[in-house]
Design brief:
This protein is mainly α. It contains three helices and no strands.
Length: 78
Amino acid sequence: MQVTVDANTDCTHSDGDCPTDWDSELEGDFGGTCPVFDDRTPERLEEEGEILMERLRVWELKMKNKCCKEKFYKKYEY
C-alpha cells in the first residue's frame, strides 16, 4: 500500500472523517484488535509486524495533513 500526502494541501477527507486515533486506524486490519502472536509461528509474527509498520507509516503520513493533525491533538488539549 503506497499512500502519499502533501503536507501543504488541504485535507481531502469528508467533514469529520479525519483519523482521530490510532486504534480506529487499525480497525479492520486485525478485526479491530491488536494481533496476538503465537511464538511457534515466526512467519506470522514477521508478516503482521510488517503490516503494523506499514499502517503506522500511513498514519504518520495522514498526520501531515494540517486538519487531521489539529483534530487528533485537539482532544489532548487541557
